[in-house]
Amino acid sequence: QVQLVESGGGSVQAGGSLKLSCAYTYSGGYMCMGWFRQAPGKEREGVAAIDSAGSTSYADSVKGRFTISKDNAKNTLYLQMNSLKPEDTAMYYCAADYGLPGLRANWYNYWGQGTQVTVSS
Description:
Elements lengths: L2 E5 L2 E4 L4 E8 L6 E7 L6 E6 L5 E3 L7 E6 L4 E6 L8 E8 L12 E2 L3 E6 L1
Parallel strand pairs: 2-11
Antiparallel strand pairs: 1-3, 3-8, 4-5, 4-9, 5-6, 7-8, 9-10, 9-11
């Protein structure tokens, strides 16, 4: 049983920062986790991912601005978002799987409910 709950979304002006959190629970195994986003009328986009060994990957559009991290002791995944742009506006989802899905959204089997991020100009 895997459960994911996102929090930390909100509204911010361009150039600002937000930090998203994803509290997770699972029965066992080593999970890869990621952040994805979807804006109205757009396809779901992989933003950042981190595997059980700590290896990370990022979409080109967020490299240098976003940082994914995980605190195993707190069972929490984070996404630090800096230098936010209006095009970052989307619903952000936390996801997890036991394989090595990376930024491939269709490889993840477990998803949170999403948290809205709105960046104004």
